[in-house]
Amino acid sequence: MEEKPFPAWSSSVEQCLKEYNVKLAKGLSSFEAETRRERYGWNELKKEKGKPLWHLILEQFDDVLVKILLVAAFISFALAYLEGNESGHTGLEVYVEPLVILLILMLNAIVGVWQETNAEKALEALKKMQCEYAMVRRDGRYVPDLPAREIVPGDIVELRVGDKVPADMRIATLTTSTLRVEQSSLTGESMPVLKGTSPVLLDDCELQAKECMLFAGTTVVNGSCICIVTSIGMDTEIGKIQIQISEASQEDRDTPLTKKLDEFGERLTTVIGIVCLIVWAVNYRNFITWDNADSSFWNYHFSFEKCTYYFKIAVTLAVAAIPEGLPAVITTCLALGTRKMAQKYAIVRKLPSVETLGCTTVICSDKTGTLTTNQMSVNEFLTLGEELSTTRVFHVDGSTYNPKDGGIIGWRKCKMDESLQALAEICAVCNDAGIHRDDYLFRATGLPTEAALKVLVEKMGLPDAKARSRIRETEFASDFSNKNTAVRLGCCEWWIKRSKRLATLEFDRVRKSMSVIVLEPTGSNRLLLKGAFESVLERSSHVQLPDGSVALLDEACKQLIISNVHKMSSKGLRCLGFAFKDDLGEFSDYHSETHPAHKRLLDPSNYLEIESNLIFVGVVGLRDPPRHEVHKAIEDCRCAGIKVMVITGDNKSTAEAICQEIGLFPDKTSIRGKSFTGKEFMALSVSQQMEILSKPGDVVFSRAEPRHKQDIVRLLKDMGEVVAMTGDGVNDAPALKLADIGIAMGITGTEVAKQAADMVLADDNFSTIVTAVAEGRAIYNNMKSFIRYMISSNVGEVISIFLTAVLGIPECLIPVQLLWVNLVTDGPPATALGFNPADVDIMQKPPRNSNDPLINSWILFRYLVIGSYVGLATVGIFVLWYTQPSFMGIDLASDGHTIVSFAELRSWGQCPTWTDFLPNPFLAGDRVLSFANPCDYFTSGKVKAMTLSLSVLVAIEMFNSLNAVSEDNSLLWMPPWRNPWLLLAMLVSFGLHFVILYVPFLASIFGIVPLSMNEWLLVILVSAPVVLIDEVLKYVGRKKWLRNQKQKIE
């Protein structure tokens, strides 16, 4: 039975010391530490054994389409070897076909292995989050730089500002008045968290509620403490996340496109097998003969040579049926898609994710930094009016730490009254934060709340006109200075110089406030204070009025202020109160640490008394504001049939307020039954959970832990949803890994989240996800276009070979020619179809079902018709050359070749028995072909006819690519120049075809000869009708769709 971990968070410090058998003053002995290491192991995350390289390579060949190609390559190699031995040709040109196929498979394997080796870097990034050294008490003294991996449960560790926490710990004592820890990457909380020593009297509570615990990988941002180590290595919260990432990795499923291609590969295998068998069986009379009709069934003659020949034809058909270029074209299209998306700030790490975006049905979004800016900003502030019965509320624009982002609505800097001056002074001086500029991004140094207050001061300006003018000139000059530097806050600096800071009364949990004693320009001391609104108002006895007078704070005025603050809080604002005090008693002449009263400042218990009888100035409402583009993005999601779920570690009221503001919930009533904490949701039965998730409309989950996020994503996937999950913290990594597409934040995201994700947002913006979904849909539509284009082309090739075999005429295309068409000639147009413009209504349609077939019955019928024409045209021109002296006024016999009847062409295998057959020599390119053996006219003599067939196949497929510009729309509505890349690709493909036709060395490899102008005219005339045929089919398809729509309406 697994040992239940000790609940250190709900136990007192004394109980923890007893449990771990350690004394705070002495720590563990070296012997005891060694004993515990043998029991608990090292304080490090386990490195999972990776797959060996050979295993990764073999995995790349575990694919239906790849296996078909491997078999085709092996058979082609064997036949090429046998044929080479028979003909005496043993050069490299004999093995072109199998070598090209193997080269494609090798490149595919290299790309696959490269992707695999990069896939699990999230676990390595987790290890980097662990600190390397710690200050640990051993044998009664501190070891200042003990390697963190040597820490064991029960160790006594001292932590200071800036230290990274090396293990999960219980705080034993604070050595400063307050302790703040940045743990947003683990819990999702937007602000540094206050920690203390008091136990949390709950055995089962969220990470966020464990205020007496520190977690490995988090950072101390304020204060110092002494702690007891409770968990190390894989038993820490970050270790549990590694386990969850590993589990999520094992649950990786194929993307919808991968599934479709696998299904296509399996069906293709079956079809190829059946067709090859039919072609071979149809020609059985050519290699199995009987002496006469009355002969016994078993009295037959078997020709191994002819059997092998027709087996070669069957292999040729298999090569024609396999779209060898499809994997390469898909990869190219996805890669081009990633470039497009990168220009729109969506960086795709895993190529199939581009297509997965297109069928996303649910977006599970984090709140902080994705829906919001993750930059605290002042939204509004209030002070008293001219009378006690009135208040003044000022609204502030801007959502970043850039002082020039927005301003105060209706503000006049030159009219700052006494109340506003007092508020600006407190915001500037009672503040330890700063702002740093990193290129065009403004970041807070220190507490985000304090940084936002300094930005407010800059927006308020100064009461002194001369100083204001001087600062404006300085700011103008700084705009052209170094972009990576601390931002100069001129107004704050003016206040700080004006009011010299003498002492600081640090924030603590009891007072919920922080204050400073300053020397005013008048020569007297003043206490400036900010803190939680309720705490500040409770300790205030008077209020500051705009004219500088001070009035008694009566109950009516207090209720007026409280009602205004309630309105601010209902908008999701965090409200801070501001006050000052002039009558400081013994601190009235305080000047430095040598003052007699200084000893009172060393004891935080005195602060409450010092900060009493305050003069209340006003209230500032701050928040992490929603991004202004998010509201429209949410609307776009609704139109596109995509459900949005917000999953955040923040508290419930803040999450609900933000969700209402961004339009996730139109009003307060609509939020009922759609807002849950992670704990509340997990307490429900699975059927209740599924009912909530399947209801129309959006949902918000707050106080969510890593396991909650993972469980919600898993549940959605089990319901058949295609889930996109966003996140930035370590806590998000398991869910990012598990989701169909994990999306990490590029600016605020941790390295762990980025490595676990499939896509990274360069601008951390939710609206970028919606843009990426639209792009994903467009890319999928374009992929369908080129997949259908390639399949229809291959259907034509299969039909041409099938007709050749059924009619019994010489093969009009050889395998190496088919391979050239599939790989090189078809490649550029197929890739260019990836640049087709997106439909204007692409985000007005619901997500496609991931089970929808790539090719439905109507599309299949269309391409069978097109394929049939391709096959007929390819075989037809071959037959025309042999049997007709002219066609449509074009002279075919001008080269001098011998015309034979169609019956003679079909029985060419009986040529040795013909007595009077003597074919004429004819001109093929720049050489004259003559035949010592008359029957060679149907083998080596078919070079011109075969060239015509290959050229028709190339030309007809170029015209067919025009049909793929739009699946249903006519070329009159969607002309080909809407995609100029396609026209360029057609030129490239024709150019490549001309190269192999007119370069003698290549022409001999491919078994073709140059064509005359007349012959090219014939090729174009035979090829062009494919456009007209598909235009008719598109028209029928549109009529059929309109009829179905009318029936649905009726």
* Helix amount: 40-55%
Tally of alpha and pi helices: 39
Summed over residues and divided by their number, the pLDDT gives a mean of: 80
CA-based gyration radius: 39 Å
Structural class: alpha+beta
Outline the biggest β-sheet: 9 strands, mixed
Number of strands: 35
Taken from the alpha-carbon principal axes, the silhouette is elongated
Distance between the termini: 65 Å
Subunit arrangement of the protein: single chain
**Which stretches are poorly predicted, pLDDT < 50 over at least 5 residues?**
118-123
Strand proportion, as a percent range, falls in 15-25%
Fold and architecture overview:
The chain crosses the membrane at residues 64-82, 94-114, 268-288, 308-336, 798-820, 860-882, 981-1010, 1016-1036. This is P-type Ca(2+) transporter. It is elongated, with a radius of gyration of 39 Å. It starts with 12 loop residues before the first helix and ends with a helix. The longest helix has 42 residues, at 766-807. Helices cover 47% and strands 16% of the residues. Helix 3 (53-59) crosses helix 5 (96-119) and helix 11 (304-321) runs antiparallel to helix 30. Strands 14, 15, 19, 20, 21, 22, 23, 24 and 25 form a nine-stranded mixed β-sheet that branches. An eight-stranded mixed β-sheet has the order 12-31-30-29-13-26-28-27, with helices on both faces. A six-stranded antiparallel β-sheet has the order 2-1-3-9-4-7, with helices on one face. It is built from 39 helices and 35 strands. It has 1050 residues and is of the alpha+beta class.
